Amino acid sequence: MADKPPLMNLEIPTADTGFYSGFAKSVAIPSKILVAALIVWAISVPENAAAVLNAMNGAMLKSFASWYIYVVALFLILCIALALIPMTGRLKMGLPDDRPEFSRFSWFSMMFGAGIGIGMLTFATAEPMYHFANNPNVIMGETTGSAADNVTAAYVWSFLHWGLPAWACYALVGLSLAYFSYRRNLPLTVRSGLTPLFGKRMSGTVGHVVDIVAVVATILGVAQTLGFGVEQFVAGLNRVGFGDWIVMADGKPTAAGIVVALIAILGASTLSALSGVGKGIKWLSNLNMGLSFFLLAFFILFGSTFFGLGALFSGLIAYLTELPKLLFTVWHADGTETGDALASWQGGWSVFYWAWWIAFAPFVGVFLARISRGRSIREYVMGAIVVPSLMCFIWFTIVGGTAIDMTLNGSAGDAISGAGQESQLFVMLDLILSGGLAWIMAAIVVVLLLTYLVTTADSAILIVNTINAAGEESPKGRVHIIFWGVALSLVVGGLLLVGGLNAIKTAMVIGALPFSFVMFLMCVALVKAVIKDGIRERNGVQSVHLEA
To answer: What separation in angstroms does the CA of 264 have from each of 246, 418, 447, 465?
Structure first.
């Protein structure tokens, strides 16, 4: 009913004393058991783990590909609609007098660093290069792989995967949690986003299950991101002279390389997480944003800037024109060569990406909510979806466009296209520069990559701890923060050692599915809450928590 105030008190049982003091044991303990079981299983019986995960992954991709495509389209449409509708767009995520805690630069830096920094360094070159060689337009015979007529199509697909739909997944969770936590004083944890549907039942078993699903999805989603980052970080260490002992002949990291990288990354990130959002994470985010602009400026000055700008404008126009169709296109295997190839491509790319962003959404969403109090829904959507998407588009066209242009004009030969995705950026720097200058730029990339890895990992550790602590935002339980730092290291290291990135991909796609249903329910709950709050305000009924 909209004639009475909404639920503004959700009790989540937490321990008063002992090792789990301040934590919801019904969430923290099962989460740790599930993650620990995955680690033990993957390391002790890798062949069995790989076989089971692959079988589950194949069945899920076959059965739920359409679900992933349609539900991500819903997330984007809902976020844009809430921002554009005057009544909802001006609603503040907080009380009327709340002001943002962070400056816009720090806010955007933390958001961008946590949400996409690592992937940007790896895929700004790798993804456009891959789609330049092959994409659905090539499969359907509309363009030619690795030819000039395929450049725009390559960027349409790159923009699709790293643009508006990706950030909408993050923004939806953050919007839902900020709305209910800061307007209604509910705990900053995932279950709060479902209170309009289930009410006080979210205090019990149903709420515990939702938060456990969010924790496991977060660990697997972040593990996927860190897995990509670890491979590129090790490749960078090899490039700056750490020796061949950290990489194998194919450029992939050795076991020793993985261990060294994870000790450095997760050790630093755990220390940063112990300091909280306002100190270590904020400082690192500002640093990596500054280094990112420096690297981008380098490619603007020394890369194929005019080619990249041309690809940006042509790709962006085509992307926005085709986005409504792309959001709802689902290809099914139909027994024909083209149909089967399109379905296989979509499962390996678009469906994989949607699962990745969904798995990453509880972490980034809680983090976005944590740093966005006091901003309006319209400002939040612009800052959390539109601006980061434009940043990704610029990166992909300036950096990736340089790689495509060098391949097209023959100056790179097959040096970039023939390298692994973790090494392509370093190969390109070696082609642009020479000697000591190439080494210096490679070292800067390694430092930038390390700051992104640490920012992502420490933010994830802090958010997992927040969910386990029933939404308590301040860093607490140092032993638990250290546990999640070690657990994240073991998940990444264990899956990389037993099956490489494919093992992490498989586990992540599986872990994302349950949370996709949670996110769908969050959409329904948010729409219900916004409509009813509008009615309450018109009728003079309290709709926000009034602090004493």
So the answer is: 14, 29, 12, 21
Counted domains in the chain: 1
Contact by Cβ (8 Å): 360, 222 = yes
Q: Residue ranges of the alpha helices (H) in 384-434?
A: 387-408, 424-432
Q: How far apart are CA 254 and CA 434, in angstroms?
A: 27
CA distances in angstroms from 109 to 33, 114, 413, listed in the order given: 34, 8, 36
Q: What pLDDT is attached to residue 548?
A: 45
The predicted model scores a pTM of 0.89
Q: What is the pLDDT of residues 344-401, one digit of tens each?
A: 899 889 998 998 889 888 888 887 888 888 899 999 998 889 888 888 899 899 999 9
Q: Residue 373 CB: number of other CB atoms within 10 A?
A: 20
Q: Where are the alpha helices (DSSP H) in 150-204?
A: 151-162, 164-184, 195-198
Is residue 168, in this structure, part of any structural domain at all?
no
Q: What is the pLDDT of residues 23-36, one digit of tens each?
A: 899 999 999 898 88
Expressed as residue numbers, the domain containing 64 is 27-86+106-156+218-360+378-513
Q: How far apart are CA 76 and CA 65, in angstroms?
A: 17
**Stretch 427-444: mean pLDDT:** 90
Q: How far apart are CA 120 and CA 388, in angstroms?
A: 11
Decide if 210 contacts 27 (C-beta within 8 A): no
- 160, 323 contact by CB (below 8 A): yes
What is the rounded distance in angstroms from the CA atom of residue 480 to the CA atom of residue 465?
7
Handedness of CA 324, 421, 267, 494 (dihedral sign): positive
CB atoms within 10 A of CB 199: 12
* Within-domain flag for 194: no
Helices vs strands, H then E, count in the chain:
19, 0
Distances (CA, A) of 15 to 28, 189, 191, 272: 11, 17, 18, 26
How many Å apart are CA 76 and CA 456, to the nearest integer? 23
Q: Give the C-alpha separation, 18 to 20, whole Å.
A: 6
368 is a domain residue? no
- Is residue 535 domain-resident? no
